[in-house]
Design a protein that fits this description.
mainly alpha; elongated
């Protein structure tokens, strides 16, 4: 179950998130030193915001991990339920020329499919 989170892509993402989480605290500390040196209200607000950004990012990342763990691993893969061909619908209402043209296209389609299936039977 957790093996999905140990692929190279996920390991790189784990390291990136950990590095960014730690970096937000270093940035918060840097802003705090600027604020204590007389930087003003903006530096005080950034000193509080940087750690908040780190926790928000971590929270979103943990949600992303939870979604990945509950997701069906075969989701998005083509399966047996995929319809590869549907017979075209011929519009016979309205314009007779359009109906004749659609019938002609359907006939061409049937011929092409017949040749393709005959070619596979060799």
């Amino acid at each position: 179950m957790f093996s999905r989170l140990l692929t190279p892509k996920w390991l790189l993402l784990h390291l990136l998130v950990a590095a960014l989480f730690v970096a937000t605290f270093f940035l918060g500390y840097w802003q705090l030193t600027k604020a204590e040196a007389g930087g003003g209200a903006v530096n005080w607000s950034y000193a509080l915001q940087w750690p908040l950004y780190g926790f928000m990012g971590l929270w979103f990342y943990l949600r992303m991990l939870r979604v990945e763990l509950t997701r069906d691993p075969d989701e998005g893969e083509p399966g047996a339920a995929v319809v590869l061909y549907q017979r075209p619908r011929i519009d016979t209402s309205g314009d007779p020329e359009l109906a004749a043209y659609n019938a002609y296209l359907a006939e061409l389609n049937e011929r092409a499919l017949g040749q393709r299936s005959a070619g596979h039977g060799r």
